[in-house]
Amino acid sequence: MVWWQKDLARVASELESLDQVTHEGWFTSSRTLVDKGRLAIEGEITAHGATYPVRLIYPDHFPLAPAW
C-alpha cells in the first residue's frame, strides 16, 4: 500500500496547501490523478503573462522524498 492510501490526513493537508496557493493567483489546479501508482496534481502556473502546464508528482517515499 502506498503512502497516499494509508495517510489520508497527509493527502488532505497537501490538497489544502495547493488550494491556498491557488488563491494566491499564480497556480491553478485542474485535476488530481494517479500516475503510475503515484499521486499527481496537474495544473497551470502563470508567470509574466504566460501560462505553463505542470504536473506535481508525489514519489513513493513521500514525505521522506520531496514531490517533483
Question: Gist?
Answer:
The chain has 68 residues and is of the alpha+beta class.
Protein described:
This protein has 2 helices and 3 strands; from the N terminus they run ααβββ. By secondary structure, the chain is α+β, with helices and mostly antiparallel strands. It has a 3-stranded antiparallel β-sheet, with helices on one face. The radius of gyration is 13 Å and the shape is elongated. The mean pLDDT is 93.
Largest sheet: 3 strands, antiparallel
Helix content: 25-40%
Structural class: alpha+beta
Q: Overall 3D geometry?
A: elongated
Number of strands: 3
User: Poorly predicted ranges (pLDDT <50, ≥5 residues)?
Assistant: none
Q: Topology as H/E string? A: HHEEE
Overall pLDDT confidence: 93
Tell me what portion of residues adopts beta-strand conformation. 35-45%
